[in-house]
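Let's do one together. I've listed all components of the complex below, 678 residues spread over two lines.
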Amino acid sequence: MSKPRVAFFDFTSCEGCQLNKLNFENELLDLLAHVDIVEFREAMDNRSETYDIAFVEGSISTPACIERIHDIRRRSRILVALGSCAVTGGINAMKNLHPPEWVKDTVYGNDKYLFPSIPAQPVNALVKVDYEVRGCPMSTPDYLHLFKSLIIGRQPEKRDIAVCVECKLNENECVIDRGMFCLGPVTRAGCGAICPSNGQYCTGCRGTISNININGALHMLKRHGLSKHEAEKRMRMFCAFEIA
Amino acid sequence: MRKDLNINIHHLTRVEGHGNIVVNMTKGVLEKAQLEIVEPPRYFEAMLKERNFHEVAIITSRICGICSLGHQVTSLKATEAALGLEITEQTEVLRKILVDGATFQSNILHALFLATPDLIGVGSVFPLVNTHKDVVLAALRLKRLANDIGDVLSGRAIHPIRCVPGGFTMLPTENELELLRNRLINEGRRDAAFIMEVVAGLVDQIPVFCRDTEYISLYHDKEYGLYDGRICSSDTGLQPVENYLDVTNEFVVSHSSSKHAKNNRSSYLVGALARFNNSYELLRTEAKKAAEKLGLTAPCHNPYMNTVAQLVEVVHCIEETISRIEYLLSRGIRNEHPAQEPRHYGRGIAATEVPRGILFHDYTYNRQGSIESANCIIPTGQNLANIDDDMKKLVPEIIGESKERITKKLEMLVRAYDPCISCSVHMLDVEFIE
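Okay, and this is what the predicted structure of the assembly comes out as:
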């Protein structure tokens, strides 16, 4: 059997998820033995026509991005959205919360017309996405699990539980009980509750669980002294496109 | 002699972000030699509006995955200056280790994984796995070690978790620090020495090109300035960080979604070579020895040598980190909590040397502790005018060479700057027009 032809693409993003792939120093050479990487602009010169698996990072935020993502979709058997920007729009969608003209004026002033820009959108707003790896940056265990599943041809399972569940498994003291803000109750798990486990609050980078109770979450945050306005604003850091 | 040349490299590879190289010469007259930045604009300054000071560094670290630590630390310093938050000596030493670690990691990634394939004549690091396995493995070990510094101290090397205004949400244990120090002393020094031997055998493949320009970096009286210092220009001397706008003078050009910058001349250079030229005396002895071995002397006016300066800094950062960890262990890790009660509100400006050069963050907070305005000036943006000026001098000098060779030299030139285009718009294609 020939090795799957794998490609990596980046749209509007920090390229941290791509970089994360080069950070599996211990597993990198083993993974490479099972696939042919045919396109990865950040690390190599080659280009290719078709792909078995295309990993796509970043949000769609310019007219040129739209054309390119459709082209990649046409040439790919499986398309995977990598990281928050691609899966939920991520922090790029924060700009959607402000009037577009104000956003462009703030950064480029009178020269704003030189650089066309549209509201930032996740990849699945434009083309079919077969699988997703959430997180900002994407979570390493999630990515390795999906990668290995695709190579051996098994269906990777989807997790749709709250970060709170994983946080409890880590036996962390509840962040909200410590008097801090936290989005763990509404955020999709899979990160191993990495932020609360490092003393930080959950920023909601993985997007919301499917059966989210927004009113309940807002009520709880309010009970702990956070205003509805502040709570909503914090939920819109990584989830501006979803919640909007 | 060739009179017409038309090069158009669309989406340059092995750089962070999207850029095109366009060169156009007609009848012996160079009409265009520029790096076009086609990365989608990000609008971070606008995203920060109304964000609370607890959230700001979480957002700004997302400007760039490769320099996330540098953006975060600079952001925290600017916030702390604006709000009057004081950090402890322990916090400062831990942040310095993180900055050394991030420089070490990023310099290894660029010099060995992105730039070195050019010196060996291959299109990426992947074929080297078969032909130069021992080198690739040593490079991977070094990268892992550098990332582990970030993991141990900040919870995650990309988009660090534990760094917050006023300090850290969680501290490393002394046991974790001892382990890191031992690995730096054993595998770190050994692998770095091996890599320097290998690269010393390849430096004759680096193109010879010379253009004197203005070199701008942070300068610190007591140590090689990475974490903090004053702005140092090789032309105009030292200035406080607060005067950064007088130095950067940003302006918009139509061929780049990242703004350009200039100070005393039409362009200036930031990054490892600027730091090396301005702060050579403050490098650790081991790093000076590495520079000698690699044939790099200060001041150096060949931008291609930026990659070599990065490797010299790797040696420096390994030694600095060992010393800093030993210092922390000698005094013991103290259980401290971040100081997060603002003492005033207003404007705060900070600068850090991130791997690609000097980075500025400038915030103004209102009385609710939320951002009123923000400005971030990124190293790659500051280098863009200098890259264009280099190409304008380089192209006529090499016009007699084959088109393939010219293209390759232009690609290598841009790559040598280690451009980080996601950052700068907050990359590279070469376009030959014939």
